[in-house]
Fold:
Amino acid sequence: MIATSILAGVLVVAFAALGFAKLAAVPAMRARAEHVGFTVSAYRRIGALEILAIAGLLVGGFVPMLGALAAAGLLLLLGGAVLVHLRSGDGMREVLPAVIFGVVTLTYLLLTLGSSR
Structure:
C-alpha cells in the first residue's frame, strides 16, 4: 500500500507538471509538439488526458480499480510517446523519460492489481 502510494505520488507530480504545461502551451511544449509533428491543439489534448489520468490516480487511493484504469491509460500514452520519439529520430535522451515513467506506471499498475486480490 505504501509503495503504490509513493509511485502514485511520483506519477501525479510528474504528469501534473507535464499535463498542465501542455494545456498551457508553454513555449517548450509548443516546440516539442512541432518537433514531433503534432499541432498545439493535439498536444493540449494529450495534456488533458494526462490530467485525467492524475485524477484517476488520486481517486485510485480510494477506488483501486480506477487507479489501475488510469495507469493503463498512462501506459498507452507513454507507449505512444516512445513510438513518436522514435519516429521523429530522437535519441535515448528523449526516449528514456517515457520508458522510465512507463516502468514506474507498470509497477504501480501491477502492485494495484496485486493488492486488489
Q: What stands out?
A: The two ends are 13 Å apart (CA to CA). The chain has one domain: 2-115.
